[in-house]
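Quick board copy: two proteins, each given as sequence then tokens.
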Amino acid sequence: MKIAVVILNWNGKQLLEQFLPSVIKYSENAVIYVADNASTDNSIAYVSQHFKQVKLIKNATNGGYAKGYNDALQHVNESLFCLLNSDIEVTANWLAPIISEFESNPETAIIQPKILDFKRKTYFEYAGAAGGFIDKYGYAYCRGRIFDSIEEDQGQYNDRTPIFWASGACLFIRKSTFETLHGFDESYFAHFEEIDLCWRAFNAGYQTIYVGDSTVFHVGGATLNAANPRKTYLNFRNSLFTLTKNAQGFLPGILLSRLTLDGIAGLKFIFQFKLSHTLAIIKAHFSFYKHLPRLLKERKQLPKKKKYYETTSIVWSYFARQRYRY
């Protein structure tokens, strides 16, 4: 099976300098692409000059993660896509277990490897860790990471197992699956679009797998860090988008509970003297209400499965019952 490693870039010359060499070194059988989102730095000239074996795709605009990949992947013909953040260091033999899983199990459509923290290499990384899940109210969590509690890697997740969503930091997907699902929802711009994609895949009968014998190291927050209210805005808004489109059940009840929990999160930010993040949550909700008619229309058109969650409320489990591990 032919695999394409596609790195989305926006003004990321320093990241490409640091991490692209490891991708080239350890991806002998892959075709490597850098898809540029209309950068204004000289990152594309740098890649063109120093890495002749890397193919360049130049997007006309910066449409964020979602549109950026939708546009770029139209120019990629390999049967497997690896969507790889520019701030990831890969390791020797990282692709072999992934390709083996795809070849051995035709029902496997999406895969995530083990994602460890580049800055603390014995710990899981926030964005994906050992595979993602979601609760009834649309809050995402991972094996190895629940909210800000992050586990040390002691081999506890060296398995291959079904998961609900794979991190967009390093996401493998069959070209045929990506095209059948019509790619990412471009209204998201960035954040949560991979969870929406995996949820739509789940509802359509596809399987997402975690492969723990493939490892990458992720810096995280290199483009938009957690201290930025813009990230809070996108995460809260896009998770509401995803919940509304894909969740089976009595939606008004689910959304009412979710809005209450978001209000509590806003109060928590106030007590932490992070008023800009509270305002970001409020802004996210107003944007959600604006898009609600479109989301409800999409909801009617998309297939759904009843049981999409293992934990009813990860918020209750974490903060009230003090369960900090998967």
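And the next:
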Amino acid sequence: MAIKITGTGSYIPSSIERNSDFNRHEFLNTDGSSLMQNNEVIIEKFKAITGINERRYADKNLTTSDLAFYAAKDAIKDAQINPEELDYIIVGHNYGDVKHNTEQSDTVPSLGSRVKHLLGIKNPKCVAYDLLFGCPGWIEGVIQANAFIRAGMAKKCLVIGAEALSRVVDKHDRDSMIYSDGAGAVIVEETDGSGGIIAHESATYALDEAHFIYFGETNNSAITDQRRYIKMYGRKIYEFALKNVPTAMKACLDKSGYQITDLKKILIHQANEKMDEAIVQRFYKLYNMEMPQGIMPMTINNLGNSSVATIPTLFDLILKDELTGHTINQGDIIMFASVGAGMNINAIVYKY
């Protein structure tokens, strides 16, 4: 028995928010004071560090569960399955459905139930639930689907990563330029043959790290705002990721039985291009190797950081020949890896 991804799908919003669009924002420090530099300099430095030039925002009439539904439909069609046969629908997200220009997140019913409703699935034994695990939520959902299938509790699972971060960003915080919207989905099922999910690794660091990413007030103390926004301690996250993610990736690869030279692609969560490059470089240094060219496909330049949606979207684009210069071929060994709020880390070694 092999547990494989048999179908992929994604939804990339059509609305493009370019770096130049942030010139009209008033960026402030956390205490409400003005930044020393003008917006052009701030944006130029931001691009140099993160690699982000533009990002996608969902249409005003759409919510996170809508994006998840569109990606799910694509994955179901790609896998050529009857959605009534699904045993689980697992939706990784972090902020629920936040309608445009509203102050409150809506999480009841769960996004999983909403997606099931939108798909028109009648089977009550198709269990739908949400997974809040930070940016690594989609990978953790795949790990859970793998466990359900191995335990005999399921045969087919739909795993989605979806987020509309544009609804929870503080326009007075320069970190708001990082975030974007989107959704990616996969069908995970039991198949004949070999390959599929070979090994996985997960960890939560919460003693000192739990609040590295959190919900906080706007940087503009001059306005009364009841909403809360996604906030982070960027330097702490950077240092945490460089210290802990490479060792987690190594633990996963070592568990798989494959060699570092067997890896063809590493699909890593994309929050910061420089950070990702540093993580993968350190991963290879653990094996006394240099990072190979082309090992880490990136979409961050034009899609930004869509949290749990980044990796499944990236995977879908590669498999459908929509990412220039990157392919994944039959028999290739690849790795999925992510880090995010929790602080959570996970990885999967997968044979395509």
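Board note added afterward: Residues 35 and 119 are 47 Å apart (CA to CA).
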